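pinning this so it doesn't scroll away 📌
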Amino acid sequence: MEEKLTMKQLLAILAAGLFSFCGVLIETATNITFPTLMNEFQVSTSLVQWMTTGNLLMMGILIPISSYLKRRFQTKKLFLVAGFLFSIGLIVDIFAQQFTLLLIGRLIQGAGVGVALPMMYNIILEESPQRFLGLMMGCGSFVTAAAPAIGPTFGGIMTQYFTWRYIFICVLPVIVLASFIGYFCMSEQIINKHEKFDLLSFIAVAFAFVALIMGFSNLNQVVDHLVFVLCCFIIGISSLYYFTKRQLHIKNPLIHLDIFNHKSFTFHTLAIMFLQMTTLGYGLLLPTFVQIVLKQPATDAGVVLLPGAIVGAVFAPVGGLILDRFGAKKPIILGVCCSFIATFCFLFFFENLTYQLCMMLYFIYSLGIGLIVGNTMTCAMSYLPINLQADGNAVLQTLMQLSGGIGTSITAAILAFVQQGINLYDGTNRGALFVLIFFMLVSQQLKFFSNLNLTIHRVLILGREAFTPFLPRKNEKKRLFLANSCIDIFIENWYT
């Protein structure tokens, strides 16, 4: 492997990165438009969230076959197909006069991103020098993390001062430019023209993802549609079981599941899934909470995520540099502590949440995520041999999209369920509390990381002591008692 990247390789990574950037940009920008779209098209919260969930679903269906596509087709041809699909989806949304057409456009965009997204990490894994691998993976995470820094603000400005359609209009030339760069800079790799596509495996994984997402998306209607929800979960789990069994017994599987023989890869993958659930959940919860409960305009709802998204994007390559020099443990431990403390404080100060406090706590949360995600992906891939890294990347990207879809679906389902029968303000306020409790429960699953117990304990204690001077004297004893109890329960659960 060469000791440095060529300009052509860097431009190829840039082209694929622009695709990923635009995919996440639109996703986070359209989250801001949900209240506007609900009013314009007369749709519910549970339906409008399919603008995000449906997009993630299409990506989740296509990303699993990325390793097969990489082996079977030239990269530049795949990239052009992805650019064409993304552009068509954008055009459909620009001119959509019905919510159904708007949703179809988002699904087509998801198909394009699903083809292009794994390319960036595959190029990095194949062509980056080992001593710069952490940095380059961090730069890859920076590309996808920078979009949330711009997306909400961008979406808020377009919605408030122009129209939500300009979100798609502005992205279209960027996709055309990325396709142009990719066509001239993507390398020609050796392909296997004789490898067969296993249609049954693809159908099985598609059924699994659609059914599971449908099940999670309709949790708010489980009382009225119990049979439907149960059928979705049964079909999803059964299809996933069939897919797994088939991959282990056919000659040319879509994904080589030997990757899960490496336990460290499995644990890191699970950790990334839990992180993705809460991260995308926050992206839906906070803009909705700020607009409906705190009565802020769409622009301010977008800006509330801006500082956190910026610091998350900046710390992705910084965390990669720390990994290259000192190893992965230190940045991951620090990141886990930051993300947990932020979620804990969201619950702790829930009754007194302000716009500024939401911004500050999300800033802390995003700082932690910036340190965790890229480094965890690098660690996960490092446990796999080179011949399985494309499969590992496909699995990682797939499960990230699935868990993100589950996170947004559960968040929307909780909000929609609580909103039923009461006014929108009270429903959103109460629903947000239950969502944060869900985030806290999910964050505890980060115990898949090893040797974090004592560090988290110390950080929580220090964090509590730091906040003590700012607590109101009237409720200080009560709040400190609650803090001590929660910390003790958490530490006890963590150790066990």
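📌 and the second one:
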Amino acid sequence: MTTKQSGIAVVWLKRDFRLRDHGALHQAISSHQQLVLLYVCENSLLKEPHSSERHFDFIKQSISDLNRQLIPFNTKVLALKGEVIPVLDKLHRKINVAGLYSHLETGIDLTFKRDKNVQKWCTENNIPWKEERQQGVFRGMQNRKEWIQQWSAFMNMQQFPFPQKNAFLPTNRINDLLEDFTSLNLNTKLSSLVQPGGEQNAHRYMDSFFNGRYTTYQTHISKPDLARKSCSRLSPYLALGNLSMRQVLQRTEAEKEQGKRSRGINAFESRLRWQAHFIQKFEMECRMEFESVNRGYHRLKKEVNPLFINAWEKGLTGVPMVDAAMRCLVATGYLNFRMRALVVSFFVHQLWQPWQACSAFLAQQFLDFEPGIHFPQLQMQAGETGINTLRIYNPVKNGLTHDPKGLFTKKWIPELAELPDQLVHTPWDITPFEEEMYGFRLGTNYPHPIVDIDQRRKEASDILWKMQKDPLVYQESKRILRRHTLARRKSNRSA
């Protein structure tokens, strides 16, 4: 049985599974109170359509990594199952929560509403809750006039060190507490195809990127296979907080100062800044989770076709580049940016499906699901912002350009493995003689395309270009630009 004691600070871990540059942990230690690291695997989040076992396995691996690092401090994460408020309420009765510390989460509607309820609980129980800013995102902004300066100042701040002093509730006390709660089983099945979670793995990936992989970043970023090595692969570690954005940006600047000045590093740094821009945009327009930011496109109606969606999810559309990318994503949790854009473009344009109908499935598959990137990018690819250039990807052209020998395609679609290079991306061009030669039957070994991709591309383009002239679309585009254009940039339709 546990005995109640006074003055325990609770550091609530959400999407910030690290010990270094952790503002909430630093503030809790600075309070000079004994503290406990708390994670609650929430039943409501487990059921949320954008969540998946893949995400929670990554979190469990991250907690296991923290526990290994915390062994010298004779403590571990109090990892529980349940809902946050009942857990906090019970914990308060057991140990007297003197203060709650966490990062300000830029999450989804469910987590935002949960946090408002947590604030209410803290107020009712006279418990101070200190939320630290994370990733340079500012809540309550009405425009971007000061954002770039504030963001830059935040990123240039000194990182919070992990204090080498024992301020933690000891392991035996945490074990006692576990008797009164439902503990979280941290066991996971590791896969060689999926990146493992954890702060130490994050630093290993960052080190390998700056120690050599960055040299081919710029040339291979659009290649579906080569990008797997040449891209940083840091996105899941940023999304779940194994790394802070500040750590990555400052490391990038340090590497440049040491002479690693290449187009690859510059391009990588630029993408980090754009990532921050989109997360801030989502923070200011969180309804993007459910509807297009440009209200003019609410008039755009697309009929949901379950057969199309099922074929797309399973990689059976009959369009090799799309199918290979989807199968790769489901198996590994990763696609490079171009392939992500391509599969979304195919879904919303050639299949003419609403972006909302692919949102949850993609989020479940992406190991690096980040709401602030996910929803704005879906809408941008769908051509429903009114401020971005309409881009409808040609899957055949992209296959021929970025996978000319079909290595990536054949890897994920073994049904096409025996076809010559010139047929891999257009198997519908095969002749009866070639079918006999290669032992391949279109429609049997691999499906016919479920749509005419050229015709559907033209139809989508005509509709969307016409909508850009709609007065409400135009009016909304001006509003979006006023609200989100960075102060030092000129207003234009590609902001």
